[in-house]
Amino acid sequence: MKETPLSNCEKRFLLKAIEERKRLDGRECYDYRNLRISFGSDYGCCIVELGKTRILGQVSCELVTPKPNRATEGILFFNLELSPMASPAFEPGRQPELLVKLNRLLERCLRNSKCIDTESLCVVAGEKVWQIRVDLHVLNHNGNLIDAASIAAIVALCHFRRPDVSVQGEEVTLYTPEERDPVPLSIHHMPICVSFAFFQQGTFLLVDPSEQEERVMDGLLVIAMNKHREICTIQSSGGIMLLKDQVLRCSKITGVKVAEITALIQKALENDQKVRKEGGKCGFAESVPNQRITAFKIEQAPVDTKDVQEQAEEIIAKAFPPSEVMATPVLWTSGTAQIGEGLENSWGDFEGSEREEEEDEIAQDEPITVEDQNLETGDASVRTRNQKDETIVLSDSEEEDVVILEPEVTNKNRTETSPKQDTISKKTGGKKKKKRATK
Amino acid sequence: MRKRYGEARGWIGAMETEQKKCDSGDLPSLRRIVCEQGLLSRPDGSASWMQGDTSVLAGVYGPSEVKVSKEIYDKATLEVMLRPKVGLPGVYERSREQMIKKTCEAVVLGTLHPRSSITIVLQVITDAGSLLASCLNAACMGLMDAGLPMGSLFCGVTCALDADGNFTLDPTAKQEKEAQTVLTFAIDSIEKKVLMSSMKGTCSVEQLQQCVAASQRAADTIFQFYRDSACRKYSKW
């Protein structure tokens, strides 16, 4: 499905509003949308909501052999998916430019900034390291995917626990969560992206653009920073010229926003940790707002299944008795066996070959299992042509090529045509006729 | 050979709350159900279905423009996409997609919207057992939220049979693993007929019929939940 285009008057309205320093959702120019983080019952699973933009993050791990040039480092892998759920314009199985851009930016922000200690993921140098995989699914696209994705990725990584391992000599032991508590990843710092949209060749600036604002913007500046005000990545796109002052001002704003977001993330993580420690209820079901009329919940519901057995017996009693099932396969002739029920198989019925000649027109649908069908059909059609030229006329299809290839050989080989062979030839001939009819 | 798709794709630290048998006379029970509709702004209909710890999010687009290659002249083209949490969709997801698609086709009145497309996107959020049943339920709630015409509603119920022939309704992942047979049925709301069935393992005809009967009972609870949640949703109108 195509994206609904933004009409010219909508575009003009948006730009006019931005000129008057107003935004469609009532925010100020430097305001971030509301950020909500909820955790799943699994470790390393979170949903980040930035306004109406929603991203699901899940971290998983696996023991793999490291890359030969980095024998002592674990592997970090990011996979951002633009699910068709997020927007009708996202099609499955296609890699739009946006996706490549987002994935690249995310890798630069999180992997190249070395926020995760990859050396601590090494188990046996050169043999076994942890591969940490971060899957991010965009559930709803309402602008500023990169900020939401970077937050979801770092939150999921902070929340994740990997199984504990121990090495004794050559032996690597992996402990289940019951045996030993899983261990968290060692995270040095938390880089977070903040996006700035520029309008009118950089005259106007908006923080955290919404989807509609993204469609009318001239350029985008993304700055990734951690709470120590260290810039991890900076990227400008859209081809606008920015002044030095503008970039400096943006980095100052980023510093403030990152500090706020980091505090929020830390609080959310602490809350979840506390709930888990106390053995309370965790998971997405807990974060569904109860007062909303679109949400509904029922507690564990018992189902009365007392007379289920009687009902089942009644149904079986009423039903027709099941027909006899042949438990063992019946061997008709070597290479031809039958299991279960079905039409009566007349294969290998040597006396009945005369009768079959008349029947084969009707019994076209019977499955034929011939080992080397190509060869058989080839010489079969030759012989049938010799015998009953008037019934079978070969068309100029590819079957004829097979016939021409080795007529002498096959004829010599099979001078004495057994009745079984004959049956096959008739049947395949019939099948071919049918094929031609359907063409 | 893959064992379960979750395991093959790496370790996800799982915490699962045990399904307790209900106190009242050891009856089999359904886990807690939580559902929120209309939570996504972009799709025409959306629903997040949680059944115990299992959680599935559904987004429904439609009826909308259809690709010419997929167009059917006398009815709507229905598409179902099931997206796993980790990795890309594989054979497991494709087979589930087909089952859900056939079930939806049986109830959605596609002839009312010829030459259009209805797309259901299902995202697995947590798999803690009875995943196919949860997907079916999420799909139905999503279709309801999108306001698409349906001949009846449908729901999914999973039964697990252990080696002694006792059945559990709505099993957790652990129970599914230990079970000899896992059966999933899609049941319609009017006649409580089976729309789709899926079975892993073996069981006798009696056991199958018992599971069907038990699923039909459980379906009553789920349909009552649908009804109550719809009543609540439209209570302020």
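qc> The longest strand of chain A covers residues 128-140.
qc> done
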